[in-house]
Amino acid sequence: DQQVKQNSPSLSVQEGRISILNCDYTNSMFDYFLWYKKYPAEGPTFLISISSIKDKNEDGRFTVFLNKSAKHLSLHIVPSQPGDSAVYFCAASVGNQGGKLIFGQGTELSVKP
Amino acid sequence: GAVVSQHPSRVICKSGTSVKIECRSLDFQATTMFWYRQFPKQSLMLMATSNEGSKATYEQGVEKDKFLINHASLTLSTLTVTSAHPEDSSFYICSAQTLAGETQYFGPGTRLLVL
Q: How buried is residue B105: exposed, middle or buried, by Cβ count under 10 Å (0-12/13-18/19+)?
């Protein structure tokens, strides 16, 4: 049972434009969500997170939006840069489960110059 | 800050041997560390949660006798793949959770190839 889903395996965007990566979840107990960026043969790098008490969190070019009623979150990257090309994973956790993260399948973002 | 290292980064071993992978939090203390594995083109799958000074908690389907985890200090956890078989070949990644927050910081991963 895939509790966290990223339905788009890949996304291609022109440099300077907005990248929108989407993530859906099924477990209503999730109360903390994170986005990670990953290059091949490397560990994930933390990008941004959001608590379920918020609906938006912004950090520089990265903004995460959370829609709890739709069980949906998205990561916006503006403006997109070629260096943003990587696989992006969303992850979710339940606060009383010791930080255990459930990951989506990942979306490979390609930003073209 | 929040740097996590893993050693070795890559290991090739013969079937039947054991391999130990170390995970260290370099600039912070972590009471909890996590071990994941990732197959090509797939997501990260949590294998076990490692708590300092206590037994690890394994996810369903993960053999505790095959994947031995030791978390001896607040900065070090080890994963030992015992009697490795070719199907254990994978990318193993650890993460460490800061004492204060919910964010996990990941190591660079260890590529294991069992011949």
A: buried
